[in-house]
């Protein structure tokens, strides 16, 4: 009974911590500016800086990205441009063209002909819109979001924890990032497979659990990477304390599962994810309920190791 209470308490703490970013993001820039000004005052009392150094400091301060500004940019690009363009095309442009087509054929009493023309016109218009607008904008937004998400995470981390403690070598950092991307992709596929199991209700809950843990990994990975945590340590920490991270990822998993369109779901994720980056950076994960680790990442880790050993490992042996 006590273990169940610990699990429920950890889930609740995770949910509450995940929502903190929606409040902190409006005050974090002000606190960062205050912290920076206090540091500059201390430095000025110890060392007299030259005019050139002062100008360089001002220039550096102006070039540093602001967290709220980056978040608004993400919301404008993903929600204001990408998502609204999809709604506008499907909700306004297509119905308007269909109405004009039906109206033009109605004078000759050829409504069946109008329906036949629209049956092949609508797919052509949708495919053209997707190829010329949705696909390029989707690729652009994903590329830009990578940099903006990193700016938000780095600024928040420097404020609360100081200088990042990265992995010791560049090659190790690149290998860790590549392996992490493979693990995340395979784990997403595993979540989709869980949702296809022929077990009513259980398959949905199991798939949702996978998404919650995956979104928690997304949110905390920036912080743990800056702290020098390697991927095995990150995954083990989530598996050992899965109730907290299940609660942390639950709000984002529920919000992204509401839209029926995968593209719209991706837009919702991109708009909300900066807030969860802030939440993950400022959270203090509950570590009490860990008596029963949930090894959900173990199958994809084993599969990824097999893939890398049979491709990269084999190529390395042949080249040597």
Automatic annotation (TrEMBL):
Pfam families: EI24
Compartment annotation: Membrane
UniProt keywords, alphabetically: Membrane, Transmembrane, Transmembrane helix
Topology of the protein relative to the lipid bilayer: Multi-pass membrane protein
Listed InterPro entries: CysZ/EI24 (IPR059112)
Signal peptide, first to last residue: none
Gene responsible for this protein: EOG090X06IP
Record GO cellular component, one term: endoplasmic reticulum
Annotated family: Belongs to the EI24 family.
GO biological process, one term: macroautophagy
Membrane-spanning parts: 76-97, 117-140, 173-193, 263-280
Protein name: EOG090X06IP
């Amino acid at each position: 009974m006590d273990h169940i209470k610990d699990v429920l308490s950890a889930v609740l703490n995770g949910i509450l911590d995940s929502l903190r970013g929606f409040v902190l993001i409006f005050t974090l820039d002000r606190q960062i500016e205050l912290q920076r000004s206090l540091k500059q005052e201390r430095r000025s009392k110890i060392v007299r800086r030259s005019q050139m150094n002062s100008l360089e400091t001002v220039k550096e301060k102006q070039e540093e990205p602001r967290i709220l500004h980056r978040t608004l940019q993400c919301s404008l690009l993903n929600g204001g441009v990408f998502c609204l363009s999809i709604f506008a095309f499907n909700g306004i442009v297509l119905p308007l063209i269909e109405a004009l087509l039906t109206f033009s054929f109605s004078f000759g009493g050829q409504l069946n002909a109008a329906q036949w023309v629209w049956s092949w016109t609508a797919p052509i218009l949708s495919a053209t819109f997707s190829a010329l607008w949705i696909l390029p904008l989707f690729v652009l937004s994903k590329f830009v979001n990578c940099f903006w998400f990193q700016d938000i995470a780095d600024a928040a981390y420097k404020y609360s924890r100081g200088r990042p403690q990265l992995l010791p070598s560049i090659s190790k950092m690149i290998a860790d990032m590549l392996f992490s991307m493979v693990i995340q992709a395979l784990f997403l596929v595993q979540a989709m497979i869980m949702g296809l199991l022929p077990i009513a209700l259980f398959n949905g809950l199991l798939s949702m659990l996978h998404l919650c843990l995956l979104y928690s990994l997304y949110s905390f990975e920036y912080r743990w990477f800056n702290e020098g945590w390697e991927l095995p340590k990150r995954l083990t920490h989530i598996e050992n304390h899965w109730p907290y991270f299940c609660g942390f990822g639950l709000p984002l998993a529920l919000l992204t599962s509401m839209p029926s369109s995968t593209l719209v779901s991706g837009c919702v994720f991109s708009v909300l994810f900066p807030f969860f980056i802030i939440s993950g950076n400022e959270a203090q994960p509950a570590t009490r309920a860990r008596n029963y680790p949930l090894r959900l990442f173990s199958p994809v880790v084993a599969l990824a190791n097999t893939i890398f050993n049979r491709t990269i490992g084999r190529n390395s042996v042949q080249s040597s």
